[in-house]
From TrEMBL:
Any GO molecular function: acyltransferase activity, transferring groups other than amino-acyl groups
Entry keywords, A to Z: Transferase
Limits of the CN hydrolase domain: 228-485
Pfam families: Acetyltransf_1, CN_hydrolase
Organism: Jiella endophytica
Entry keyword annotation includes Ribosomal protein: no
Domain N-acetyltransferase, residue spans: 10-209
Domain of life from the UniProt record: Bacteria
PROSITE patterns: CN_HYDROLASE, GNAT
Stated name of the protein: GNAT family N-acetyltransferase
Record lineage: Bacteria, Pseudomonadati, Pseudomonadota, Alphaproteobacteria, Hyphomicrobiales
Length: 516
């Protein structure tokens, strides 16, 4: 008889990027009095430690989520806050060389309490802990019954001791004790927004009985050994007779990059301004930028076709686009080789863009998921604001693309120096692509100055000057470099300096309007 198979009604599996929206919805349902997790936070967790994020699926619905990371014992076994230890919820402090599995969060659908979802998630954590031969599991547990019993138990320590002795039941701490976790010590001001717990937490630990200390002497395999090949195009502005001339010029470089077997080919900011050079007469700036937006459908269609045809991811510089709210914005596009199109608005238009073209600043700042991992786009002036790069890297980006368009050497140097600073601050790669030449019949497109580059952190495994590749000044050409993502992981965990991890999150952090 043939074996019969059926789809299980409930399963525990590792989370994927396709689950992000459902996880956010679940967190909103669970934490009704707080802001739910943002997409960026979940993406950061998945990027930092994909095998450590679990979901429980019941009848095709996500009803549970557990987020974890790895930390060294020295960080776990001392006073800390949730924001500090988790990098604000992004899992940015994940340390692959650590020895403890640390729980960031557990969410259980309140309408599905009888499915033992919490136990399933904690069991998944135990299996992972044992498979990775870690010392144990730790997390900051809540004490939601403390405020309600504060009159009888004057301090959180007294309340915790009463719970431990089973003199009373706490909705969360009693569950953790029953599940085999032991209270290590009280965490003061662990999560200030948790008023029911008085802002306190308790460090709960479970020690792995199968832990083998001998594994600490074994070499650590570097995570993510993939190499990403980048081709950045320094393109010369050229007068064209018809729009197809522009697309022919672009496809030439896409073909070159594909022949180099590149994963990404990058174009400059506002390189589509060349489409205005075939207009019958020169248009004033405001009319010109409005005319340029009319090319958006053709531009996205043709660039998408190139990405698919050449099997390469195209960072399509930027293009003036009229958005759904009627505003004209400077939008960076990513045309991925799977046929998907992603748009990212320039957050900070320059004074010139606002004055001459009435371009408005955008709002969302999020990574783009690609087959080479999450990447970020910062358009020219955006690179001069460190908060943008930090958010993208917190969300998991290890490569940041910066299409730029500058008319003078000092304008170009502002972009270059800031991009190199972003690479050092975040221990990431930053790729720039600029325009050169000029278009006499396109108003406000002055003589262009560019020297495009691919920048790295400054440490031993990278180029001595932090420049993996660079074009000649003001010459149409490409620069090519292979970027090793595992080298970035090494730098963040073992480098001479560890800027990305050594932030004092107990002293400062950036709060975004979406809660990230």
């Amino acid at each position: 008889m043939a074996e019969k198979r059926s789809t299980p009604k409930i399963e525990v599996r590792t989370a994927t990027t396709k689950d992000v929206s459902d996880i956010i919805a679940l967190s909103a349902k669970v934490f009704k009095d707080e802001a739910p997790y943002t997409r960026g936070m979940i993406m950061g967790q998945l990027s930092a430690f994909p095998e450590g994020q679990f979901v429980v699926v019941y009848e095709d619905e996500i009803v549970g989520y557990a987020a974890t990371m790895i930390l060294p014992e020295a960080k776990v076994m001392k006073q800390h806050s949730w924001a500090e230890v988790t990098g604000g919820g992004y899992a940015a402090m994940h340390d692959r060389k650590g020895d403890w599995l640390y729980g960031i969060e557990v969410c259980v659908d309140p309408d599905r309490r009888r499915l033992r979802i919490g136990k399933r998630l904690y069991d998944a954590r135990r299996r992972l802990c044992q498979d990775m031969d870690l010392k144990g599991i730790a997390f900051g547990g809540r004490l939601p019954g403390f405020k309600r019993n504060a009159r009888k138990y004057k301090t959180p320590e007294a309340y915790l001791e009463a719970v431990r002795k089973a003199e009373l039941t706490d909705p969360v701490a009693s569950f953790h004790l029953k599940a085999g976790f032991e209270p290590e010590f009280l965490l003061k001001n662990y999560y200030p927004l948790d008023t029911a717990s008085g802002g306190n937490g308790v460090l709960m630990v479970w020690r792995n009985p199968y832990y083998d200390p001998a594994h600490m002497d074994q070499p650590v395999n570097r995570s993510n050994p993939d190499v990403v090949r980048i081709v950045t195009v320094q393109m010369e502005a050229r007068k064209i007779a018809e729009p197809q001339d522009f697309y022919d010029a672009v496809e030439y470089f896409v073909e070159v990059a594909a022949e180099y077997e590149g994963d990404f080919v990058v174009f400059p900011e506002l390189f589509t301004l060349m489409l205005l050079s075939c207009e019958p007469e020169e248009l004033k700036p405001e009319a010109a930028i409005a005319r340029l937006t009319e090319h958006t459908p053709d531009f996205t269609e043709k660039m998408t076709a190139m990405a698919i045809r050449r099997n390469i991811n195209i960072i399509g510089g930027s293009h003036a686009t009229r958005t759904d709210d009627g505003e004209i914005q400077n939008v960076g596009y990513a045309f991925l080789r799977d046929g998907s199109v992603h748009a990212r608005e320039k957050i900070h238009p320059t004074p010139n863009e606002r004055q001459y073209w009435h371009i408005q600043g955008g709002d969302p700042i999020d990574v783009i998921e690609t087959d080479c991992g999450p990447v970020g786009i910062m358009i020219c002036y955006d690179s001069e604001f460190p908060e943008i790069a930090r958010r993208l890297c917190d969300q998991g980006a290890r490569i940041l693309f910066v299409p730029f368009n500058t008319d003078t050497r000092h304008g170009y140097l502002r972009v270059k120096y800031c991009c190199q600073a972003r690479a050092v601050e975040n221990q990431c790669y930053v790729v720039t692509s600029g325009m050169t030449g000029n278009l006499a019949n396109v108003d406000n497109l002055d003589i262009e100055y560019a020297q495009s580059g691919i920048f790295t952190p400054c440490d031993f495994p990278f180029a001595r000057d932090g420049i993996a590749a660079e074009t000649s000044e003001n010459v149409e050409m490409v620069a090519v470099a292979d970027l090793n993502l595992s080298t970035l992981s090494w730098a963040r965990y073992e480098g001479s300096v560890r800027n990305f991890r050594d932030r004092r999150l107990d002293l400062y952090r950036t709060r975004w309007s979406d809660g990230g």
